[in-house]
């Protein structure tokens, strides 16, 4: 054996054909997701300029065959680089969407609790959030219940939801009492 050349004879890490296929399918699904991502979000994803232009070309294509070929090309370009920064950016978008959904659900739960329980629920909200506009919330709850009784559109319930959503944006609302 020659001196200084020991590393050449080390065996490379073997990857099974099935694993290579799974990796290729993951990259292809990543390419598909990037092609279908909104323009503003795509601008926030760290991409090579050739990949970005290939994605833009794929969006313009109307023929299914051409679009599939372009999808394969985008996947090939993505295989050259580490996909980790791209995956992190997409995960960030997903977490922001989950956070927004959580805020919506909390505001809906509080609105329903306030409309169903009345003054007791308002007192509970004030106990958790003394910064709220108590008078406006009481008025909106009364008006929303009156609108429901008269089969009118729920304008006050919508306004109550907006106020609760704004409160939740400033500081997350606590869980509704008796609701996990």
Describe the structure.
This protein has helices at residues 17-36, 39-44, 49-60, 64-80, 84-117, 119-128, 134-149, 155-170. 17% of the residues are buried. The chain has two domains: 16-81, PSPTO4464-like domains (Diphtheria Toxin Repressor, domain 2, Orthogonal Bundle); 99-170, Orthogonal Bundle (Diphtheria Toxin Repressor, domain 2). The protein contains eight helices and no strands. It has 180 residues and is an all-alpha fold.
Please describe the structure with a list of short key phrases separated by commas or semicolons.
Diphtheria Toxin Repressor, domain 2, 180 residues, elongated
Give the SSE map.
Layout: H1 17-36, H2 39-44, H3 49-60, H4 64-80, H5 84-117, H6 119-128, H7 134-149, H8 155-170
Helix pairs in contact: 1-3, 1-4, 3-4, 5-6, 5-8, 7-8
Could you tell me the radius of gyration in angstroms?
27 Å
> What is the total number of structural domains?
2
**Helix share of residues?**
over 70%
Q: Give the beta-strand count.
A: 0
By CATH, the architecture of the largest domain is named Orthogonal Bundle
At the fold tier of CATH, the topology name of the largest domain is: Diphtheria Toxin Repressor, domain 2
SS content category: mainly alpha
- SSE pattern, N- to C-terminal: HHHHHHHH
Integer average pLDDT: 86
Question: Largest sheet, if any?
Answer: none
CATH class categorisation of the largest domain = Mainly Alpha
The CATH H-level superfamily of the largest domain is PSPTO4464-like domains
End-to-end separation: 69 Å
Q: Beta-strand level of the residues, as a percent range?
A: under 5%
Could you name the ranges where pLDDT drops below 50 across 5 or more consecutive residues?
none
- The shape is elongated
Number of helices: 8
């Amino acid at each position: 054996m020659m001196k200084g050349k020991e590393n050449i004879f080390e065996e490379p890490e073997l990857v099974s054909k099935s694993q290579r296929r799974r990796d290729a399918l993951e990259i292809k699904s990543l390419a598909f997701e990037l092609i279908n991502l909104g323009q503003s979000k795509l601008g926030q994803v760290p991409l090579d300029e050739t990949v970005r232009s290939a994605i833009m070309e794929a969006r313009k294509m109307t023929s299914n065959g051409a679009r599939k070929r372009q999808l394969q090309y985008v996947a090939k370009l993505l295989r050259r680089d580490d996909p980790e920064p791209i995956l992190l950016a997409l995960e960030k978008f997903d977490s922001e969407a989950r956070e927004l959904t959580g805020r919506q659900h909390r505001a809906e739960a509080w609105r329903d609790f306030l409309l169903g329980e009345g003054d007791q629920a308002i007192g509970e909200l004030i106990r958790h959030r003394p910064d709220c506009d108590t008078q406006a919330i009481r008025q909106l709850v009364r008006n929303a219940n009156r609108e429901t009784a008269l089969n009118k559109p729920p304008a006050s319930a919508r306004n109550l939801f907006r106020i609760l959503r704004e409160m939740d944006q400033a500081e997350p609302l606590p869980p509704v009492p008796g609701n996990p």
